[in-house]
Amino acid sequence: xxxxxxxxxxxxxxxxxxxxxxxxxxxxxxxxxxxxxxxxxxxx
Length: 44
Prior knowledge:
Helix content is 36%, strand content 41%. The protein has one helix and two strands, in the order ββα. Strands 1-2 form a two-stranded antiparallel ribbon. InterPro entries: BA3454-like.
């Protein structure tokens, strides 16, 4: 497992979030996970 800090641009704002993923997880999947986290946390 590793922790990755990702900046997500959503609706014109930048959000910084951490994603915990396996080392084999692709960059695309990590970005998808980060975007989902931001949507759930900040956009209700």
